[in-house]
Amino acid sequence: MSTHPWWQTTVIYQIYPRSFQDTTGNGIGDLPGITMRMEYLADTLGIGAIWISPFYPSPMADFGYDVSDYTDINPMFGTINDFDDLVGAAHRRGLKVIIDWVPNHSSDEHPWFVESRSSRDNPKRDWYTWRDPKPDGSPPNNWLSFFGGSAWEFDEATGQYYLHSFLTKQPDLNWRNPEVQEAMFEGLQFWLDRDVDGFRIDVAHVIMKDPDLRDNPRVPDGWERKFKSHGEYDEFLHIHDKGHPDNHQLFRDFRALLDSYQPERFSVGEIHIPDWDEWAGYYGEDLDELHQPFNFSLVHSAWDVEEIASRVEAQESAIPDGAWPNYVLGNHDEKRLTERYGAAAARAAAMLLLTLRGTPTLYYGDEIAMTEADIAPEDQQDPWGRNLPGAGRDGCRTPMQWDGSEHAGFSPAATATTWLPVTDDYSQRNVATQLDDPTSMLSLYRALLAYRKGSPALQTGAYRRVEAPAGVYAYERGDSVLVALNMTGEPVAVSFPGTVALSTQGDGATTKLLRPNEGLIIEL
Ligand code: GLC
């Protein structure tokens, strides 16, 4: 029996609920749709946990990341009974259920904010961050919204500005007020009592800010951006509006709450911090904060041996003793991996994700190599894409392609339109077609997932890079498995011991020659 907790040996699959399966015909996915696909998830594909992006009541200004009630289900997605059914169906098949928790901000339509903005002396005024204008009427400081423009919105009625790190419709909660923490933790208990197995925490590092709200300095000359472009936002060093050390106490409190539940619950935080040591600090000095801060480093990497290997090794050496690594190759905020790494690399990328040491999170649709959809600027649904041309995230959020029928089997045939268009190639690229094809991406994912499930070395064995010719990334897991990835489009002669257990390119694999873009799992 493995002594590793479930969240270390599992594979997480992210579901963007608007786009997974629509059962009502309104063109938007829903919770009964996820339940309907449980057999696919647990048995056909063979993942171990699902993470569902927000399904709470919400005006949908940021497609659910603007919550107007933390303890209910948006009628668009179903009912609380549908949620209980989903959890029951998942647990019966041995799948864990992780839900999204959005603590940094609520919707401006949350009753708390409606009260807070109603007058300066409302008891909930201090649940959000309100400040007077500067003498010239301008915002209290120079902080910018991640989605463009000032992070402050002036409220005519009460003559003050409120803070919103994201949209004006997403006011930041003031976690320095203990009543906020209490109310938000009650929300967590509501879901823990409904047997959810864990939380993914939205923008976890943004929650606590500088209590004095000092201006952010401008970036120094020659400063290099570490993440994708955010326009004007990139002109400042965000040292005061996020990443405050007080986040750590908050996560210790959060973890204590989680740890008061049995069986063991899990947390993974969305933490975008380029400094590895600061990032690793979110595990907690005594591993008493998040189980994992999401590791997005491969999302921002080129498909290049040295770049990828250096990021893998940076994580391996940054994490505290006893902490568990993790990897992400895509999510609802990033371009599809077929776009970032290129379609030719997608098979080896699947092998990379599922053979490194650490918990992998797989984004829905990547298992059939869904492509980034090209959504015209005038059709952009994503508010970020509307504010900042090129930043739109719709392209990675299109409906799951289940089969070759109308709407790709995502919505019932009679549905007028789906909320985002199904990508053009759906009649060839879909689950049903790929299930019948042993050479498909889906068949590769199934084989990799099945292999990993049966391989203690892949699940928990140590990582050690081994020498290989230029263009090849090779590493051992434990002392019985070697992974070799040809990250070029050329054949490369190699000389590995052992026997091939699985190749990304199917039949004909040998330990002496890697075909273009081929990845091998070799048993030593
Ligand atoms: C996170 C979410 C993203 C959302 C933002 C604001 O980055 O992943 O989708 O827009 O937070 O909540």
Write the layout of secondary structure elements.
Blueprint: H1 6-9, E1 12-15, H2 31-36, H3 38-45, E2 49-52, H4 80-92, E3 96-101, H5 111-116, E4 130-131, E5 152-155, E6 160-163, H6 178-192, E7 198-201, H7 247-259, E8 266-269, H8 276-280, E9 292-293, H9 305-318, E10 326-328, H10 337-340, H11 346-355, E11 359-363, H12 383-387, H13 431-435, H14 441-453, H15 456-460, E12 463-466, E13 472-477, E14 481-486, E15 492-493, E16 499-503, E17 513-514, E18 519-523
Parallel strand pairs: 1-2, 1-11, 2-3, 3-7, 7-8, 8-9, 10-11
Antiparallel strand pairs: 4-6, 5-6, 12-13, 13-14, 14-18, 15-17, 16-18
Helix pairs in contact: 11-14
Describe the fold and architecture:
With 524 residues, the chain is an alpha/beta fold. It is built from 15 helices and 18 strands. The mean pLDDT is 97. The structure holds alpha-D-glucopyranose.
